C-alpha cells in the first residue's frame, strides 16, 4: 500500500535512478515541548520511506495546538483541535499509512499519548527504527508508540489492531491512488462506524487532482466531513494542505 505521496505528480516510479541510495535524516523541532525528533528516510526504497507536505503540516498543527502563538493569550485559547484532543486524560491514537512515522511519533510526544503506527509489513522495520531513535524524547514526555501491520481493508489485521481502543485516527497524504480509495473507506468504516467508541479521523491532505473528488463524494455518504484547518499554498501548488475531520454522521464528538 502506498500511503505517503509525491508532490504534484500523477505517476512516480518508486525506484527512479535519481533517488539517493544512502539513508537520510530529517529533524523536526517541536517548539511547544522544546524537543527535536529525528526521522530516517530511505528514498531509494519507495514513497513510504519519504516525507511529504501533509505530514509536516499536521505536525505543525499539533505543535501549535500544544502551544498557541506567542501573541495569543493562553487563558481561554482554543485551536482547531481543542474539541478533538482534550487534555483531561491520556489519549489513544491510531495512524494509518504511517510511512516514516513522523506524525505518530510527534503526536505521542506532543500529547503524551499512546499511539499505534501502521503500514504495510515491508515499511515496519524503518518505522520501528524511527520509534527507537526517539525513545528518549517519548519517555520524557510520557508518549508511547507501538508499530503494527495494517493493510487497508484487511479485516483480520484490523481486528488484530483493535476496534474500540482509539480516540483519534490520524492520516496524512493517504488519498492518492484511486485503487486504494475503497480499501481506505472500508478501514474507516471499521474504526469509525463499527466501534462503540466515538472516534474521529483527522486527515491532512494536499489536493492534487480532480479524481480525488470521487473519494470525498463516497466519504460524505458515510461520514460528516469538515475542513477544520487550511494552510497557505506551498511552492508549486495553488492550494495548501487542508486538515479534514471525519466522524460518524450525526454523531457529535465528545472524547
TrEMBL record:
Pfam families in UniProt: Methyltransf_16
Highest taxon listed in the record's lineage: Eukaryota
InterPro entries for this protein: Methyltransf_16 (IPR019410), SAM-dependent_MTases_sf (IPR029063)
Biased composition (Basic and acidic residues): 13-22
Coiled-coil segments on the chain, per record: none
Annotated stretches, region: Disordered: 1-25
Name of the protein: Protein N-lysine methyltransferase METTL21A-like
